[in-house]
Amino acid sequence: MDSLLSVDEAAKILGTTSRFPRRLIAERRIRFVRVGRHVRIPESELADYIASGTVEPVLSRMR
User: Is the pLDDT of residue 25 over 80?
Assistant: First the structure.
């Protein structure tokens, strides 16, 4: 089972304030779990979100 992160823990991993993960949740741009009235983000989902936003460098050709 995947570990569940609080919004503050997710924000710390992303290097943002807690407002950013909350916005991702509100806009349904990231998968989350409700545990009672608490919101948790699966660690694998956070890793997938980071991977989907990763931009690889363009290797220029030597002429």
Answer: yes
